[in-house]
Predict the structure.
Amino acid sequence: MKNDEQTKLLAVGGLILALVLAVAAPTPLAAEEAPELAGEAAVEAEAAAAADDGGEADAEEAKPRMDIYGFAMTDAGYRTGQIDPDWFDVIRPTKMPAFENEFGADGQTYFGVRQTRFGVKSWVPTKLGEMYAIFEFELFGTGSDAGQTTFRLRHAYGELGQFGAGQTWSPFMDIDVFPNSLEYWGPSGMVFFRNVQVRWMPIKGDTRLTIALERPGASGDQGRYDELIELDDVKTRFPLPDLSAEYRLGRDWGYVEIAGILRHLEWDDMGTDQYDLAGSATGWGLNLSSNVKLGKPNTLRLQVVYGEGIQNYMNDATVDIGIEPNPGNPTSPIKGVAIPMLGIVAFLDHNWSDEWSTAIGFSTFDMDNTVGQSDDAFAAGRYALVNLLHYPVPNVMIGGELQYGYRENFNDGWSVDDFKVQFSFKYTFSHSLGGNS
């Protein structure tokens, strides 16, 4: 590693740890009623509340408990524009067409049950403290299964005391920013990543501190140099885990949270020609988020994230590394650099009554593309929605939602927008076994 890379890595690492440790002094709040949440945030709030309840009992008196839960959800809708067919039922600006009619003609009706979910959680008292575990999956295929209705692991994670390991939410993200919406994928400018990790949680509760080592990963864009055969010899390597941390300060009006991440990316040139295209980059990011209670029926969900080379942690982004010319260096005529990016989320959840609710808001995501990227590379995305949801009886939700997406390319003048109307029907179930009650 070069000296400047080492200096940058240590400096940003020190900044992250200083931020989370400097604010660790405030006394945690007493237990309070959690704000009313739905969707992704509701699942997490339920798990946290149950874990807190279990921690209040003495280890000798507490009994093992298991919760079985999930929901069956049907979605139906109409899209006015077009999108990559593998993502037919979501709003993802990165998957919208990069040129006219890339995915055929506009207008598409869809039906699906891919949001359907099933999970099991358990709490077991031990002499070292309570052991908590979660196993959860859904039917929304991604990766090689994109577009399919198939099993997809969400959480496989366990905790014992202050330590946890497995696949769950990255500490760099804040799931409570996710709005009470029908659209599955969520705000384009939101940090959103379930990752394999080991974590330490010295402070737990409404006010909390978490530090984790996470599985590394990234992607690069060869851009206008994609036909350069020498790039075929370049292989990525991740010698270090990603370091992430979060600190949340809870108050009666809601909370404020700051999170940071630091990562080291390398690529090696395995070729034997005259060029040396090896290199490295430091990825880093800071994420500031909050939930603010505006009276009992309203929750404002906010987030601003900025960083370089952290697109892998974003909800809807493309690549972490881009190519730039390297003038004056005949051995390394091009170089890879971490791409700067900015994400913003702002949503309001309003409960009209016990039976009716609305979510409204928007999100933006912008990348500062490198000059070596293709003219049609993704540069910016916009996301917005408004809905009306009805809960006629417990465990049943019926709703409609108007959604909007927008894509802008880097340097060819292309932009496109899309509207989608979605109706959903959700039937929730849960059952507890064991415990003290």
Remarks:
- The first strand starts at residue 65 and ends at 79.
- The CA atoms of residues 4 and 10 lie 10 Å apart.
- The first helix runs from residue 3 to 22.
- The radius of gyration is 23 Å.
